[in-house]
Amino acid sequence: MQHSRSTFLLALAGSAATFALAGRPATATGAYKVSLSEAEWHRRLSPEAYDVLRQAGTETAFSSPLDHETRPGIYACAGCALPVYDAKTKFDSGTGWPSFYAPLPHAIATSNDASLGMPRTEVHCSRCGGHLGHVFDDGPQPTGLRYCMNGVALAFHPARKAGT
User: Fold this and answer.
1) Is 94 among the domain residues?
2) Is 164 contained in some domain?
3) How does 81-109 read in b/e, with b if 16+ C-beta sit within 10 Å?
4) Is residue 163 part of a domain?
5) Looking at residue 137, which CATH number applies to its domain?
6) 20-66: per-residue pLDDT in tens?
7) HSE-up (13 A, CA, CB side) for residue 148
8) Residue at 111 is within a domain
9) In angstroms, rounded to a whole number, what is the distance separating the alpha carbons of residues 54 and 59?
10) Catalytic amino acids?
11) pTM of this structure
């Protein structure tokens, strides 16, 4: 009896995982200025960045040093270096991921994501289609939005000090 219960639970877990991934593309679809083969993406990105940017993974909450970054500067897509967020729009959401209330103009694209059985809005880089994170409507003013990004999908470029 114990064996059949274990088999049932494993099958149920497998079905749940399949349901969670159903209908979710590995990356955003469409024509992008930066379009590389999977082998090229593997060479360009760390395994963690590849999982997030190309397979729509999620890094562990509170694991990114960028969550605590407070210097002025620009956050760019780690896949193609497109600037996507100004540090002026960053805020501490308490979620464990870098959060912003607004992207830079024309920097992102969005798509529907129902991978967890609930509707969410997925955020992609507009130049390479890489998965950056999700946007929610519980952020601060002036937009009321929270762009909850994976730090491994971003590269931070600190602002240069005057005279340097």
Assistant:
1) yes
2) no
3) ebbbbbbebbeebeeebbbbbebbeebbb
4) no
5) 2.170.150.20
6) 333 334 445 567 899 999 999 999 999 999 999 999 999 999 999 99
7) 20
8) yes
9) 13
10) 148
11) 0.80
